[in-house]
Amino acid sequence: MANGHENRQLPRLPACQSCYTKKAKCDNARPKCSPCMRNGHACLTVSLNGSEPVSREYINELEQKALSLQAGVIDIEPLMNDTEEHSPEDNDSSGPAPRDSLRQVAETTDGRNSDMSLSPNYVEGAGISFMSLLFTDPRWREQNQKLLHNLSKRATILETSVQKNSLPSAEEALIVFNSYLGASHVQNPFLLRRYVQDLYQALFPESLEDQHARASGGRSTEHQLFRAFMILAIGAIPLYRAGKHQYHPYGYFLSALKHLEEGFLLKGLESIQDLLLVSRFGIYYHIGTSIWELIQLSTRMCIEQGLHRCRTRKTPDGHLLEEQLRRRVFWQCYMMDRYTSVMLDRPPAVADKDIQVGFPADADDEELELAGQSGVFADLDSFYRISTVQMDSMPATETSVFLFCLRLRKITSKIHTKFQQKTKGIAEQEISQIELASASGTIYLDLDELLNELESWRVSAPVFSNPKCLYERQEWYDLLLMRERLLIIRKAIDLVPKRNNVPPRDLLGICLEYSVGTITTFCAMFDQGLVTYTRSYFQTLFTAGLSVMFCVSVVEDLDYHTIKSASEAVKKGEKTLKLMVQELPDAVHYVALYEALRADILRKTKNQRPDAVDGEQHIPFDTINQSGSIRFLPDGSVNTENEPPAPDIQHNPPWPILTPDASTNEAQLIQLQEVAIESQQLSWDIFGDNVFWSMEADMLGEYVYGSSAAGHFFD
Q1: Options 3.40.190.10, 3.40.640.10, 4.10.240.10, 2.40.40.20; CATH of 2-111
Q2: Residue 715 burial (CB < 10 Å; 0-12/13-18/19+)?
Q3: What is the pLDDT of residues 296-329, one digit of tens each?
Q4: Among the four residues 91, 314, 564, 653, which has the most C-beta atoms within 10 Å?
Q5: Residue 221 DSSP code
Q6: What is the pLDDT of residues 168-221, one digit of tens each?
Q7: 3-state DSSP call for residue 672?
């Protein structure tokens, strides 16, 4: 009985490092959580800000000591104010408590079965927590109980198996290879263009001599076939989604896995390139493996091979291109690491301060090869310095877009680092009014600095007179700018001191401007078919829409034009989300949530400013979804009954979670599965448990944890 009483007093501990990384259920047990006790692992706290991790056993010792002192001392308030943990009985004390302690007490004693360890992304400074006020209206919650209940479950997902594709004809393969080189390679040149072209020639010889040479030389290697199928898988994505290619990209991916050799991680630089190919494909389709884990592994392999350091030995004559490729591979890993880590508020795989190697040179491969053969340049850095001086007068090169995106990720990394440091500084101590003002000023200073850096970055964008792909278009650069601006302002709003939980008016105005800009820019590009659907784009549009709703709901002095543009933006965002959810059916409940919030916020706004908000115009899903397989009901729930068979492959079938099945090549029937989250997650405090933040697992899961339903890449 005594132990049970003590356990009720002990505060809820966050997920340990092992469970946090593996997305395992971490309980509140001491001195170790059950998974760590079962597996014999050390149970340590997560170190998000570079702080030293602490073992749960040590925490348990301190807690037991505190309980012993509490039982033996009458007046313990001075002692308890020096600790970071408080039991529920401390609420009766008359003395003031530190701000973080009060917040912790509220989280653990408010009567709700809150489990913050299930929401590792829910931290101040992640750029989302301030929107919790959107869900505080009791009337809205009462009216949308079924919707909230649906959000507490795993979203409905489509599972199907796709047959492995064989190599296409030489003509079809040439189109897909050119699609890879003309699109994905422009932003992600971690393979040499020449290598991709030579690989095509090796597998699809044109002349009779080449065909005889291939026949006499034997079959293609397994590694060649793996890479060829991965290039086909990535290159086929835009073609297949536009109805210009008949074979599903996932079929090429399954064929690539068939040719994956047992020691594929033992090939040095080539192994990293192979992991990057899989990771790039995983941005568009479930691969059954965590992209975040793959990039963490790739970056560790880069570090083991010393790619993050300057080479101590002189580059041999004629091998500038080899050094260029090494840098392109490392910085590609860096770029994808920052992309996934910042999106999921995870620590990066390598800190910026530990990177010594410079950027790749802004030059075409042929230019580097000639420069290397000339013997004029001692190494790539000397060539880079000269090319940087001449950059203003040079046309765009093969690496121009890559370097432009890389500079953006450097700024993104700086954003992540700065605001994570602010998170620790503000949350871990009691702050006076003077310190609050100082903290606010520092946040404003950093915000201004980072926004100026983004403006300078946008001005430096390469210009293509005849853009041939998305990555060469100025509209895409505008979208990247808007998205990063919105990320910065949301993080600042999360951390800045608030009055009555409402952020400063000027920051809300900026947030509203950037949110509307993000929605408008993305929707225009989506309508033109310039961008395709991905989970990261869905998350960007979803959070931008919620940001608009939040700003409109808390700012009372918005003018007519601002309210009108905001209302049009959230409606436009809803329409695009409903189009995207046809291909991302596991996101359907989030669209229902968005629609319910949009209707409620705009109704209240119209009551206050009837001149600025048009009459309610419901966007019926049936007018968008021709198959009628998914319908939003008036109560915010979703009807997925009578799911029709998958449409013909030429009509872009709904985006599935595709499950590779090594035991059969026969296409299985599409089946709907709803997996309920454990009952203790079912709470109406959306921002206090994992209900709303299950978007991380459902919508962004493949970036971190992969799909539990799909096969595993390493199996």
Answers
A1: 4.10.240.10
A2: exposed
A3: 999 999 999 999 998 766 555 558 889 999 999 9
A4: 653
A5: P
A6: 999 999 999 999 999 999 999 999 999 999 999 999 987 555 555 555 555 679
A7: strand
